[in-house]
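Submission checklist for the structure archive. All mandatory fields must be present; incomplete records are returned to the submitter.

[x] Identifier: Dirigent protein
[x] Organism: Ceratopteris richardii
[x] Residue count: 60
[x] Sequence attached
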Amino acid sequence: MHTRANAFTDPSWEYAIVGGTGAFRMATGYNVGRPVSLTRTPSGTVHIVTHYDAFFSLRC
């Protein structure tokens, strides 16, 4: 499944940032973006590409 979205006309999406890997494993925050593409991987997860502004903080 591969879906393309128009980044300039579709409504914005907001995502929570609840962690990551490496130095970003303690990241929290959110990003507000417009979807560019959504791709389902063979393992069943979804890879989302957005044009966005992110706001986050790192806890040490």
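[x] Structure attached
Curator remark: The mean pLDDT is 67. The first strand starts at residue 2 and ends at 4.
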